[in-house]
């Protein structure tokens, strides 16, 4: 790296650090030192061990208080401004994209805490079990995470994600509802309003509670997987030449069963996309719409 590139990187880092500092509500110096300790960590195995890092000059009590108090609350009169500042700081870590849209991803991730006896609001969570026959469950918390998905890095072509929002899902709520609240804040931010936003998610987010909220945003396209046994129904259009009958007209049109290709009609569009796997295998994906 040349001297000019180094100077530019240092300047960008200082701007990012300043935006992050301004977006914090309280314990600003504590959080900045905690981030320094976390960034230079090589041996800490728990949060409290970060207080032993030379870059963290406070005691472990300040560490926990900083984590509990640094985020702005909605009762803060400058809440919207602080959130916008935090998003601005995060957005500076997202590399510029060559696409004409911003790509985001959302999912929930489990955090098992079965031995934390005093932890509040624990619940059963889905957690993969490597032992065949055991139920994939555990006890702990579940977190909803929204990430920006930038282009693959030029070096090594490795895709990566930039976390934008992470919130715990209360035991009485569903992950999709928590995700709706997080995404609403992101879509309202002016930082991502210059381009179309594409959101990708797995089949848990293909339900009406989630899709119904996302279609309210004009500049957002939501792409989700659906279960292979999902059954759709086309919109019913009454034949104008058909005589009206008594009773309510049909609610739904013809069935579209993903498992039964006999219910499929001719697609309006078909695209064939070739690609090569990491092992060098040549495959072609057929997309019918």
Automatic annotation (TrEMBL):
Question: Transposase IS701-like DDE domain: from which residue to which, for each copy?
Answer: 19-269
Q: Which InterPro entries match?
A: IS701-like_DDE_dom
- State a single Pfam family of this protein: DDE_5
What is the protein name stated in its UniProt record? Transposase IS701-like DDE domain-containing protein
